[in-house]
């Protein structure tokens, strides 16, 4: 064989191999334990996005492969699973969903130079100078001022009972919202700490009744939110119940039943949003999994499309520069429909897009107000 023929054959093989290269994503999520609802929705959203993108030829012609690992809703296990995932040199790390697990894993991803797209909402996660971590939803520093403003402006509340879960997620939310209440002159009539996985809220509700607040702010995980709502109804509490996504999400509505009716909250993501692309996503999700996803399902779905949008913009597979590309990037839904809504990422990895104020009415989220992007 002549040299130039051999060289041509080798280049063809190399080119074929490069084209066949897969994009490996590693997901670490709460697939069991107290956060199983969170992690299962997140995982299913990821899998749906991967299926859709691969069916259309992948990202720049490369198919996506995703592996899922179970954190068991335990930060220590999450750290071990993330380290194992990073050893396989993924293109991007997805998850975890719990803020406490993100807190103990983000340094590992940063040290490895791997972009981490996570579901945690604790304010501190993007405030420590980590340039590799990105949110899929609002952080507490963005959402809590909106909630406090609603309680002050719309409910005219002068006193509030604050019920929060004693973990990184709950403490972060409690600290931000109470600061906002203080700024607005709203008295915290009761400051009630609860535990993750708590089953009995009778004593906590008794404290709320004793404080007689104008409103109750609730910031717990989904399953605990449902239990608290049931107990509030059982003890006849009539004060307005206000929270964030974890109070009025689809899973909470299903678990709490009639007790969820009347609960209100600010949500960054809801499948009941009056947005055509969001409704279409909901239909595809229900068709595949036979249930309506909560915000965690949307977050997992968006995480994969963030990877696609950034890689498309770079025009090549370059895991070391995905974070640089996402910082300051605006992704328009008209350009990448998988993002569902226009979104911008700032230099901290925080997200800006429209949000919604909702109320649970007859077992369904009803959007009362659409809040525009901040910037």
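^ structure tokens above, recovered residues below v
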């Amino acid at each position: 064989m002549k040299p130039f023929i051999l060289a041509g054959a080798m280049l063809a093989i190399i080119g074929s191999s490069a084209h066949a290269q897969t994009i490996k994503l590693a997901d670490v999520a709460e697939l069991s334990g107290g956060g199983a609802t969170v992690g299962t929705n997140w995982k299913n959203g990821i899998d749906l996005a991967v299926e859709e993108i691969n069916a259309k030829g992948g990202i720049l012609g490369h198919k996506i492969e995703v592996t899922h690992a179970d954190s068991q809703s335990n930060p220590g296990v999450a750290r071990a699973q993330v380290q194992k995932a990073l050893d396989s040199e993924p293109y991007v790390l997805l998850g975890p969903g719990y803020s406490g697990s993100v807190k103990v894993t983000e340094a590992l991803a940063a040290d490895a130079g791997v972009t981490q797209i996570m579901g945690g909402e604790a304010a501190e996660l993007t405030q420590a100078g980590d340039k590799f971590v990105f949110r899929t939803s609002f952080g507490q520093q963005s959402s809590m001022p909106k909630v406090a403003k609603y309680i002050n402006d719309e409910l005219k509340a002068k006193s509030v009972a604050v019920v929060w879960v004693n973990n990184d997620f709950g403490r972060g939310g409690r600290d931000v919202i109470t600061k906002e209440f203080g700024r607005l002159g709203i008295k915290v009539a009761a400051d009630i700490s609860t535990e993750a996985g708590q089953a009995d809220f009778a004593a906590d509700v008794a404290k709320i009744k004793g404080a007689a607040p104008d409103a109750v702010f609730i910031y717990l995980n989904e399953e605990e939110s449902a239990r608290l709502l049931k107990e509030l109804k059982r003890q006849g509490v009539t004060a307005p119940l206000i929270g964030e996504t974890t109070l009025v999400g689809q899973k909470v509505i299903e678990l709490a039943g009639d007790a969820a009716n009347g609960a209100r909250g600010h949500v960054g993501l809801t499948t009941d949003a009056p947005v055509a692309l969001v409704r279409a996503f909901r239909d595809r999700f229900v068709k595949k999994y036979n249930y309506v996803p909560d915000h965690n399902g949307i977050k997992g779905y968006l995480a994969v499309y963030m990877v696609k949008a950034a890689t498309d913009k770079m025009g090549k597979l370059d895991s070391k520069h995905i974070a640089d590309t996402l910082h300051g990037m605006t992704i328009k839904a008209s350009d990448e429909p998988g993002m569902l809504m226009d979104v911008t990422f700032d230099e901290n990895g925080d997200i800006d897009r429209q949000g919604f104020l909702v109320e649970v009415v007859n077992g369904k989220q009803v959007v009362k107000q659409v809040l525009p992007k901040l910037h």
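The CA atoms of residues 147 and 290 lie 32 Å apart.
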